[in-house]
Recover the amino acids of this structure.
């Protein structure tokens, strides 16, 4: 199948080498190829990783490693975090199947990255702040936490099934989505402007920015819209400096 949308798996701070192999096998089962690791404690080259990968060692051999999360995300149109926890900082979450249904109807998202956190703690609030969307995999309340490789398999399976069902062509004329790098530059402009205006609480600037990120991310802004926002921020700063 020749898919117009591609999905990459990003493991943030993975701890166990065996899980890397199991993730690679799950990805290959479902036709995924791009595996990225960020600040990994686990070893891609270990015998345990390759033993668990079985016939998916090629996924491990081609995996990319990064020291910093932002570097791993720079080329994506949309970045999505996974979390089983809920709360104020995780209110932008959708169930996995609902999200994939929505994203398949949004063909301007051509490169999608899904983040999975460390086995013991998951993704931190700071790591989730890099995500434009969040997803949850529904599971039983008695034991909701999934093993890392299981979670990757569920996501990869739902993606594979959605691709296999994509018979109808969805026509859209929207400009390409802004992408991670342009969005982050815009958020830096906004945070700087809000900080200069005294709006942000210096004790907790993250809270207000999380609300602003949720608000803007829900709109899936395209490049032209984000450039317009950045132009507004520049004009406001010029007006303030020349008033």
């Amino acid at each position: 199948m020749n898919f117009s949308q591609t999905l990459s798996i990003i493991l943030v701070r993975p701890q166990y080498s065996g899980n890397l192999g199991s993730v690679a096998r799950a990805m290959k089962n479902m036709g995924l190829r791009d595996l990225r690791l960020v600040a990994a404690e686990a070893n891609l080259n270990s015998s345990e990783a390759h033993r668990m990968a079985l016939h998916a060692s090629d996924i491990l051999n081609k995996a990319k490693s990064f020291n910093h999360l932002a570097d791993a995300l720079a080329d994506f149109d949309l970045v999505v975090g996974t979390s089983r926890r809920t709360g104020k900082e995780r209110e932008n979450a959708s169930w996995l199947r609902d999200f994939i249904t929505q994203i398949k109807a949004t063909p301007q998202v051509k490169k999608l990255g899904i983040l999975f956190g460390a086995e013991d703690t998951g993704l931190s609030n700071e790591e989730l702040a890099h995500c434009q969307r969040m997803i949850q995999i529904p599971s039983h309340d008695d034991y909701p936490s999934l093993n890392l490789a299981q979670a990757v398999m569920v996501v990869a399976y739902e993606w594979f099934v959605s691709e296999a069902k994509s018979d109808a062509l969805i026509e859209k004329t929207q400009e390409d989505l802004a992408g991670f790098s342009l969005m982050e530059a815009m958020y830096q402009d906004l945070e700087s402007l809000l900080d200069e205006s005294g709006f942000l609480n210096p004790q907790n600037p993250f809270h207000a920015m999380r609300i602003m990120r949720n608000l803007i991310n829900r709109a899936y802004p395209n490049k032209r819209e984000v450039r317009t926002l950045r132009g507004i921020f520049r004009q406001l700063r010029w007006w303030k400096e020349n008033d």
User: Anything to note?
Assistant: The longest strand covers residues 6-12.
